[in-house]
Every structure is written in structure tokens, then in C-alpha cells.
Specification:
- The structure holds two protein chains of two kinds.
- By secondary structure, chain A is mostly helical.
- Chain A has a domain at 60-210: MetI-like fold (Orthogonal Bundle).
- Helices cover 79% and strands 0% of the residues of chain A.
- The longest helix of chain A is centred in the first third of the chain and has 34 residues, at 38-71.
- The two termini of chain A are 41 Å apart.
- The model of chain A is unreliable at 18-22 (pLDDT under 50).
- Chain B has four domains: 2-49, no CATH class; 51-288, MetI-like fold, CATH 1.10.3720.10; 303-403 and 533-564, Periplasmic binding protein-like II (D-Maltodextrin-Binding Protein, domain 2), CATH 3.40.190; 405-532 and 583-629, Periplasmic binding protein-like II (D-Maltodextrin-Binding Protein, domain 2, 3-Layer(aba) Sandwich).
- In chain B, the strands form two sheets. In chain B, strands 4, 5, 6, 7, 8 and 9 form a six-stranded mixed beta sheet that branches. A three-stranded parallel beta sheet of chain B has the order 2-1-3.
- Helices cover 58% and strands 8% of the residues of chain B.
- Chain B starts with a helix and ends with a helix.
- The model of chain B is unreliable at 262-267 (pLDDT under 50).
- The longest helix of chain B has 34 residues, at 56-89.
- The chains are: A mainly alpha, B alpha/beta.
- Chains A and B meet through helix 1, helix 3, helix 4, helix 5 and helix 7 of A and helix 1, helix 4, helix 5, helix 6 and helix 8 of B.
Chain lengths: 261, 630
């Protein structure tokens, strides 16, 4: 059940006329087509770039929040974590849909901004809108992951570090942060991956002119009907993702290895 | 210094919480809005709640979402835990391989997983519906459960189970009494992630569903094309359900904790009751929505499966038809003709489809729809003559028109100079005077139609040269005009007068003009697309007789009137069309409502597989060019 779907995609991506598996002929033309077309490569880099930006923003915002939560009293912690989890139980699309109203021209955001004299500029259907939508949807994952690893940490380590004369900053960079790294890594995983492939956030908030790799794949399958080419793009994307995640996880293991020495 | 940091933390957290809840509060507030607008609150009203409660579709989607989430959480938690324990007991090589395999779906982008499942179900010819959606959800939740259980198992002492068995416990007992309690936190957080993933999922459900089964995400996705505040109402209901569940759980677990004085595990005890309560609620909702009694009407107990574009039927049509025939109607919406085609061509089961002309031609070519039995139909005489014998169905053998119209330009009469429209035709979209002030419509066909017509070609051209000229026309438009490519948001946006010009279907223009008097509709003389959406019966329909009944019903004066007046598209029923346009009609004097039939440059789309592919590929390149232009 887990491997079969992937195997099918891999099969489709190297065959022609994929709608029946009986009469297939092997080919690599779909891959060649993708890599020789600058437009597709632009879409790929743009998707990776916006996912990267989303991840960085989530990390910058999420880490302090998670840190703050992990420092509060236990009862408070539970409540705060609930506050962050609840929105994720309300469907992602529904929440994204609400942003359309907030960000559209004449919506509350532009009303507030124009009140402060920032002008009645248009937010919806811009890259910023897509970015806000993505950060909004994926930030809770980052916070929860980092928070889990921060809570697991033995607090006496911090005291020990302080006792040994480390400044708070040094304690943070040498003790707290390295120990929370697993949480950071899995947070990055949980933010970056969905951000690259998301297709409804760009579609709803970026408008039709904001075209990411997820939209390209959807478009190939649904509108164009080129399942083989669509599968090839999916494969390329999956491989890139896996390589990236492996690289990120390497950092983690190297770090863990260094600690043991 | 330390204090500063605390304040900084508090401020940041407060801002984060505001950020998280802003859309939710916004949604709740606007669910009580009197008007359809998403930006202006015009007054308090409960009409969207009434609308939601009346809509069986919405209530069912709520039921589907929660029942799937709960079942898949339970199943995947149990399966994932067992699998994780099993893997931990196997040899190292097996374990490593299994862990890699388990990471596959997590590392894969959602859309890839979704497509994998779709291909899987199609290859094995599994009929898509509730079961496929459930299976897919279980399958994609298991890895998340395993991922959070595995570290806990790894940190267990491997001798623990042996110790338990040495002390006389059976393997089962040692599992349940010793191992499971040790790894409970992992199981709980795994279950939570699974539940969240399932509730949140859109992409996977979207690709694996069928036979009218939809969860909230799919519902919202198909409905969000037109502004429909009922979405806010149903979301508010979800919020309320979740909060009630949480309060009940917290109160009961507090009582329980007091009674048992077991504070240390009381903290996470709310999960099981949550699930139980949501389950009860979901079943309750399900029971009310399914609890319908049948009677002695002609089609009592039978079901009609209709597949049509989103927001394309008057709100009372289904209930009226059910009252009239006794049958149950299951409506499924598609977002585009192409999406419908994939489902139908891969064995989707429907009794009635409402595709567009060119797609009907394709369905006929591929032998997917049946010839109509004219003896069962009484509607042909009522239908406007202009839409009989169209090229897609010259003998009217396959389809009964449902709505029809043209494509034209909607414009703000207070901004746009009508002379520009007369002089430029569709090239007004290249007129720099309106730079940053135009909407294009996200449809490759109609965009190419506009460009081809403006260049003086046929919109059914097969010449690659002409197509690439049209492509250059469109690229120039998105690169120089800061065009926004939208779909049905254009309706709400033009009602609010947000841009000066837009490419639009005549039916949508009718609706916009009925809401905003400043808007006008213009059809260039160089010609436009004259289209018909018609009802057809697929070859594999299970209940064609009921489909015939529906065709007769919907073309009858009353139903056709309700339908057209609600949606705004032009009715094929001659009398309805004239009455709605005539004195005291809903669309009195709105010229967009009566499609142009006397311009010889107007054409209907024909189906050609090669040009279709060229057009859609070029259109995605136009969109890429548009994103580059930003």
C-alpha cells in the first residue's frame, strides 16, 4: 500500500501512452522534455525558492515561540499548545479561503493598512499573499516539533552550563540549540515538503498567474491529460525532495555523532 | 534583560495567536453576514446557516470528513503501532529497509502520493468513493503514526518483554500491560498527527474520491469558485463542534482526575474522549442527513447520480425533483470538463453529466455516452432553435441543452471608454490604458479563442503557426498588462468594481450586471465562442430512466425558471429566457442574458485532441510567463 503507488508513478514516468499498462514502451523522453525546457525549470526553482522562504520564516518565527512556550509553566504550556493545535483541526482550505476575504481589496487588511497611511495596495494575487498563506498553514507544525524537542531537554543541563560559567547566549548556541536540532529538522521537513507541492494555496491566493510545480503536475494530469509527463515531473520532484531531506538529516546525524565523541 | 526577553516572547506569542485565529474569527463573523460580500459586513443574518442546514451535500461532507478522520485515525494508530513494534523486533537489515520505506510517503510531496493512489485505484479498477478515500487516508496516516511511535520503542529496554514473560505473562499480556503503556505518549501523538492530517487533507482526497463522496476540503474547493458564505457557516459549525468537544473533555477529565487522583496521566487523557465525542456527533449528523423516508412515488428508493460543474444548479432544484419523483439525487461537482473526463473515462459511475459542447464531442468520439431515446423525452419543442443542431451534436441525438451563452468582455462603464471596445475588440486587453486593470479567465480555450479571434483566425484552427501567434498575443498580454488570471472570483471582484475589464462568460456577466449597474457587457464583432452545456447520459449509467425524467423536469418552465434565475446563465427554454429578460424578469434589460446569435464570426468549439494538448501546454506557459512578469 505504501510502495505500490510510487512504483506505479515510476512506471508511468518511463512509458508512453500510460492509460493502459499492457501496451507500454519504455522511454526517457518525459525527463528529457522537462530538463530541456527552461520554463519548467523556472517553475521548479520558483517552487523551491518559495518553499525555502516559507521554511526560513517559519523557523525564525517558530523557534522563539516554541522556546517561549517550553519556558512557561506546565499548565500554561498545555493551553498554549492547544491554542496552536486547534486551528490545524479546522480544514486548511477553509482557513485559506478566509484569507481571501481578509486580503482582498477593500478587505480588513487593506483597510487597516490604509488607515495607517500605507495606501490601499493589493495583497491578494501576489507572492506575498502566497507566502502569508503558506506560513499560516505550516507554522504550527514547526512550533509543535521544536517545542517537543525543547520540552524533552533536561533542564539541569542548562543549569550545569550556567554553573560552568557560560553566558546565556553561549548556553543557547552550545547546549539548547544543538539539543533541539532534531525538532528543528523534523519541523523543516514538515514545512518544506508540503510547501513545495502545495497547489491550492498558490491557486487561491496567488491567482492563476502564480504557477508552481504542484500546479504544473495537477495541470498535466487533469487538464492536459499527459499522465506520463505528469508522473515524470512527480518523480523528479520526489527525488529532489528526498535528496534534500537526506542532506538535512545528515546534518542531524553528524551533529549527533559529534556529541558522542 | 531577562524581563525584556519575556516581554518579547509574550508579544510574539500574542501576535502569533492573533495571526492563527484571525482567519477563523473573520470566518465566524462573516458567516452571520447578511450579504454575499466577503469584505463588507452589511448586517446580521442567519440565512447562510439555513442554507447550510438545507444543503444535504454540506452536511454529508461534514459527516464524511469526520467519519473518515476518526476511522482512519483509529485504524492507522493500531496498525502503525503494531507495525512499529513488529519492525523493532525484526533483524537490522529488515528494520532499516522498512524505515526507509516508511519514510517514502512522508518525504514525498502530497501531490505525488495522491497521484500514486489515483493510479493505483485506476489500475486495479477499484470504483472510487468512500472506501477508496478511507483506504488512502489510512495508508497515508500509518507512516506518521509509525514515525512517532518508533523512537519510543527504540528507547525501551529490549529485555522488558522478556522480563514480563519470565514473570509468567503471555506475549499478549506483555504487549498490552507492559509495552503499550510505556509507549503511550508516542501513540497518542501519532494518533493526533493522523487525525490532523486526515482532517486537513485535500489533495489526496481530491484525487481518490468518486461517486459524489466529498469531504469538507473538496466541498470548499468546488464551492469557493463562487462566493458562498455557507462555507463560513459550515466552518463555524466545525469550530463550534471542536470547542464543545474540547470543553466536555477537559471538564470530564478534570472530574476524572480529581476522582482518581492520577494527575500524571490525566494530562493526555482527553484524546480518547475527544474521539468518542466527535464520533457520536458525527454519527448524529450522519443519521439526520441519511434519515429520509421513501414513499410511493414513481422512482422511490432509486438514486440519480449527477455530475456537473460547481455552483451550476438552482438551490431548490434537487429537493423539488426529489419531492416530485421520490428518488434521491447525489450531486458531484467538477471543476473543469477535463477533470470530469478523467473520472468518466476511468469508470466513474454517473447517470447524468453536464459537460460543454466540445467535451460532448469527445465523449461521443470515445463512445462514452449513449444516444438518447427520443420517445422518453418531451423537451425538444421547448428549446430555443438556435442551439439545436450545433456542430457537437448535429442531429440532437446525444444531448439536451442545459445552459448556453457566449464569452465576452465585462467592463466598468465608468472607467472604460466604449470607443476603445469598438476599436480594439479583444485587443482592448492589450491596450496599455488599462494596464493593471484587467482580469483574464483561467481557461485555455477561451483565452486562445480571444487571441485567435482578435488575430482574425478561426478558434478551431489546427495550424501551429496560428496557435503560436495566439500564444505570443497572450504572452504579450500577461507581460505588458499586469493581467490577473482568475476563475470565478471574477464575479465577486467585478461586482465590487475592482478592475475595469475582464473576460467573462455571458451568464456570469448577467449575474454581475444584476448586482452592479455600472457594469456592461461587450461582444467584439470579430467573433466569440458560442457555447452550450448539455445533459448527456453515459454508457455505463445505472439508471438512465431517472436521467430522462430529470431532463424533462429541468427543461420544464418552472424548474428551468428557478434554475436560470438562481445561476444567471441563459436558459435553453425559450419562454423562460424571454420572461427572465422581459418586463419584471430577474434579468430585465440585461443584454448579456440573451446570447448573440446573429454574428457570422461566432463559432462553437470543436474537439481535436492534438490542438487541445497544444493549447493546454501553451496556456501553462502563458501562466509561467505571467508569474515571471511579476
Amino acid at each position: 500500500m505504501l510502495v505500490l503507488p510510487m512504483a506505479l508513478i515510476a512506471l508511468y514516468s518511463i512509458t508512453r501512452h500510460g492509460n493502459s499498462i499492457i501496451s507500454f514502451s519504455l522511454t526517457l523522453e518525459h525527463y528529457v522534455k522537462f530538463f530541456t525546457d527552461p520554463d519548467f525549470l523556472t517553475v521548479l526553482t520558483r517552487s523551491l525558492w518559495i518553499a525555502f522562504k516559507t521554511t526560513v520564516i517559519c523557523l525564525i518565527l517558530g523557534y522563539p515561540i516554541a522556546y517561549y512556550i517550553s519556558r512557561s509553566r506546565e499548565k500554561m504550556q498545555g493551553i498554549l499548545l492547544m491554542c496552536i493545535t486547534i486551528p490545524t483541526w479546522i480544514n486548511m482550505l477553509v482557513r485559506t479561503y478566509a484569507w481571501i476575504g481578509i486580503m482582498s481589496e477593500g478587505g480588513i487588511l487593506s483597510t487597516i493598512l490604509s488607515f495607517f497611511g500605507l495606501g490601499d495596495f493589493e495583497l491578494l494575487y501576489t507572492e506575498t499573499a502566497v507566502l502569508i498563506g503558506m506560513v499560516y498553514n505550516f507554522l504550527p507544525f514547526m512550533i509543535l516539533q521544536i517545542n517537543t524537542s525543547l520540552c524533552k531537554m533536561d533542564h539541569s543541563l542548562l543549569e550545569a552550563s550556567a554553573d560552568l560559567g557560560a553566558t546565556p547566549v553561549r548556553t543557547f548556541t552550545r547546549v539548547t540549540f544543538p539539543l533541539s536540532l532534531p525538532g528543528v529538522i523534523s519541523g523543516i521537513n514538515l514545512v518544506f515538503l508540503p510547501a513545495v507541492s502545495s497547489f491550492f494555496i498558490p491557486k487561491l491566493l496567488g491567482g492563476g498567474q502564480y504557477f508552481l510545480i504542484g500546479n504544473l503536475i495537477e495541470n498535466q494530469f487533469i487538464t492536459v491529460g499527459e499522465w506520463n509527463f505528469g508522473s515524470a515531473i512527480s518523480m523528479i520532484m520526489a527525488v529532489i525532495m528526498m535528496l534534500m531531506m537526506m542532506a538535512v538529516n545528515k546534518i542531524e546525524t553528524r551533529n549527533a555523532g559529534g556529541k558522542e565523541e | 534583560m531577562k524581563k525584556n526577553r519575556r516581554i518579547f516572547g509574550t508579544v510574539l506569542l500574542t501576535l502569533a495567536i492573533i495571526f492563527f485565529y484571525l482567519p477563523i474569527v473573520y470566518m465566524i463573523v462573516f458567516s452571520f453576514n447578511d450579504s454575499k460580500s466577503l469584505t463588507a459586513f452589511t448586517g446580521f443574518s442567519l440565512r447562510w446557516y439555513e442554507h447550510m442546514l438545507e444543503s444535504r451535500d454540506m452536511m454529508q461532507s461534514l459527516y464524511t470528513t469526520f467519519s473518515i478522520a476518526i476511522i482512519s485515525t483509529v485504524v492507522s494508530t493500531v496498525a502503525g503501532t503494531i507495525a512499529a513494534i513488529g519492525i523493532s523486533k525484526s533483524r537490522k537489515i529488515v528494520r532499516d529497509v522498512m524505515e526507509q520505506v516508511n519514510n517514502l510517503p512522508i518525504m514525498n510531496p502530497d501531490i505525488v502520493t495522491a497521484i500514486g493512489f489515483m493510479l493505483l485505484f485506476i489500475t486495479f479498477r477499484v470504483e472510487k468513493g468512500y472506501m477508496t478515500m478511507l483506504l488512502a487516508h489510512i495508508a497515508f496516516c500509518i507512516p506518521f503514526v509509525m514515525l512517532s511511535v518508533m523512537p519510543k520503542i527504540r528507547s525501551l529496554d529490549p529485555n522488558l518483554a522478556d522480563a514480563a514473560m519470565d514473570l509468567g505473562a503471555t506475549p499478549w499480556q506483555s504487549l498490552i500491560k507492559v509495552i503499550v503503556p510505556q509507549i503511550t505518549p508516542g501513540i497518542v501523538s501519532g494518533a493526533l498527527i493522523a487525525f490532523t492530517m486526515s482532517v486537513d487533507d485535500f489533495i489526496i482526497s481530491y484525487f481518490v474520491t468518486g461517486s459524489g463522496v466529498k469531504n469538507l476540503s473538496i466541498m470548499v474547493y468546488t464551492m469557493s469558485k463562487r462566493v458562498n458564505p455557507s462555507i463560513n457557516a459550515i466552518s463555524t459549525l466545525v469550530v463550534v463542534i471542536i470547542f464543545i468537544a474540547l470543553i466536555v473533555i477537559n471538564v470530564t477529565s478534570a472530574i476524572m482526575a480529581k476522582r482518581e487522583k492520577k494527575a500524571e496521566i490525566g494530562k493526555r487523557k482527553w484524546v480518547l474522549p475527544t474521539i468518542a465525542i466527535i464520533l457520536v456527533l458525527a454519527i448524529g449528523i450522519g443519521a439526520t442527513s441519511f434519515g429520509q423516508t421513501s414513499s410511493s412515488l414513481p422512482f422511490a428508493g432509486e438514486t440519480l447520480y449527477i455530475y456537473l460543474p460547481g455552483e451550476y444548479m438552482g438551490e431548490d432544484i434537487v429537493s423539488d425533483f426529489e419531492a416530485y419523483t421520490g428518488a434521491t439525487v447525489v450531486v458531484e461537482n467538477f471543476e473543469s470538463n477535463e477533470q470530469m473526463y478523467i473520472k468518466v473515462a476511468n469508470g466513474g459511475n454517473y447517470d447524468l453529466l453536464i459537460p460543454s459542447d466540445y467535451m460532448i464531442e469527445r465523449l461521443i468520439q470515445e463512445d462514452l455516452i449513449q444516444k438518447l431515446d427520443q420517445s422518453k423525452l418531451d423537451c425538444m419543442p421547448k428549446i430555443v432553435d438556435n442551439i439545436k443542431g450545433m456542430p457537437y451534436d448535429p442531429q440532437n441525438e446525444y444531448g439536451i441543452p442545459y445552459f448556453w451563452g457566449t464569452v465576452g468582455i465585462i467592463y466598468d462603464t465608468t472607467v472604460v471608454d466604449e470607443e476603445d471596445l469598438e476599436n480594439d475588440g479583444f485587443a482592448v486587453f492589450l491596450n496599455e490604458k488599462y494596464k493593471g486593470n484587467i482580469y483574464l479567465y483561467d481557461s485555455e480555450r477561451d483565452s486562445f479563442m480571444m487571441a485567435l479571434k482578435n488575430l482574425g483566425y478561426s478558434m478551431n484552427t489546427e495550424s501551429e503557426e496560428e496557435l503560436s501567434a495566439a500564444y505570443n498575443w497572450l504572452v504579450k498580454c500577461v507581460e505588458t498588462m499586469e493581467a490577473q488570471i482568475v476563475t470565478d472570483e471574477i464575479i465577486d471582484n467585478m461586482i465590487n468594481g475592482r478592475k475595469a475589464l475582464g473576460l467573462i462568460y455571458s451568464g456570469d456577466a448577467t449575474y454581475v450586471m444584476s448586482e452592479n449597474e455600472d457594469m456592461g457587457f461587450y461582444m467584439p464583432n470579430e467573433g466569440t465562442n458560442q457555447w452550450v452545456d448539455a445533459m448527456v447520459i453515459p454508457k455505463n449509467a445505472k439508471n438512465p430512466d431517472l436521467a430522462y425524467e430529470f431532463m424533462n423536469f429541468i427543461t420544464n418552465y418552472e424548474a428551468a425558471y428557478d434554475n436560470s434565475s438562481w445561476v444567471g446563465y441563459t436558459s435553453p427554454n425559450r419562454d423562460v429566457m424571454n420572461d427572465l429578460f422581459g418586463p419584471d424578469g430577474d434579468y430585465e434589460g440585461i443584454d448579456a442574458y440573451i446570447p448573440r446569435t446573429d454574428n457570422e464570426n461566432d463559432e462553437a468549439f470543436c474537439y481535436n485532441d492534438r490542438t487541445r494538448k497544444i493549447m493546454s501546454n501553451l496556456w501553462s506557459k502563458v501562466k509561467i510567463a505571467a508569474s515571471n512578469a511579476e
